[in-house]
């Protein structure tokens, strides 16, 4: 299939418009771009280049690789066996609960150079959430935590209208309150 540069350009434009308050969104300032998970390397490259583009547009931006944040949460389980269901439940809670990935991202935002969150937070490498947490739950947790930044989400999966299928492994679900660029 290949990386779709035209769709990515529409995604960038939508992110800029949301960050400037020119688009109302669907309740949350999130912009999601589904992409074929086989194009992960192209998505990583695009995510790394996006902050510079957004700065050229006069917006502050920060890219957060979710895989790194998930690895930080998983470190506490690295040397421990997971003998029973309770340990797996705890791991799922750590990743998707209020002290999981969303909390780590909020802490990361607090460490920006001037102490304020960027206008745009770019979320990439979301495949690391599977099978522990849902992207929609993570986005909702970030919003509930009070993050007002526009979220630019590179989503490894496919779209069927307003329903997304994560990594082609999960049945399409709704629950995304942002703009989906297809």
What does this structure look like?
The chain has 182 residues and is an alpha/beta fold. It is 40% helix and 18% strand. It is built from 6 helices and 6 strands, in the order H-E-H-E-H-H-H-E-H-E-E-E. The chain has helices spanning 5-19, 40-56, 66-74, 85-96, 101-110, 135-144, and strands at residues 30-35, 61-65, 120-124, 150-160, 163-166, 179-180. Strands 1, 2, 3, 4, 5 and 6 form a 6-stranded mixed beta sheet that branches. The chain is globular. The model has no long low-confidence stretch (mean pLDDT 80).
Q: Which features would summarize this protein structure in a list?
A:
182 residues, alpha/beta, 6-stranded mixed sheet
Q: How many strand units?
A: 6
* Weakly predicted, low-confidence segments: none
> Radius of gyration over alpha carbons?
16 Å
Mean pLDDT: 80
Q: What characteristic shape results from the CA principal axes? A: globular
- Which class best fits the helix and strand makeup? alpha/beta
- Total of helices: 6
Cα(first) to Cα(last) distance is: 14 Å
Helices and strands, in order, run as HEHEHHHEHEEE
Major sheet attributes: 6 strands, mixed
**Quaternary structure:** single chain
């Amino acid at each position: 299939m290949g990386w779709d540069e035209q769709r990515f350009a529409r995604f960038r434009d939508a992110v800029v418009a949301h960050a400037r308050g020119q688009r109302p969104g669907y309740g949350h300032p999130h912009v999601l771009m589904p992409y074929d998970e086989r194009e992960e390397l192209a998505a990583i490259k695009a995510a790394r280049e996006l902050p510079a583009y957004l700065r050229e547009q006069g917006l502050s931006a920060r890219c957060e690789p979710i895989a790194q944040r998930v690895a930080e949460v998983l470190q506490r389980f690295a040397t421990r066996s997971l003998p029973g269901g309770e340990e797996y439940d705890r791991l799922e809670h750590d990743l998707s609960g209020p002290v999981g990935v969303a909390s780590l991202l909020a802490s990361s935002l607090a460490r920006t150079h001037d102490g304020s969150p960027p206008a745009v937070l770019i979320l990439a490498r979301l495949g690391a959430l599977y099978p522990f947490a849902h992207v929609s739950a993570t986005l909702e947790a970030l919003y509930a935590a009070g993050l007002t930044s526009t979220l630019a989400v590179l989503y490894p999966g496919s779209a069927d209208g307003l329903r997304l299928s994560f990594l082609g492994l999960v049945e399409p679900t709704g629950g995304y309150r942002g703009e989906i660029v297809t």
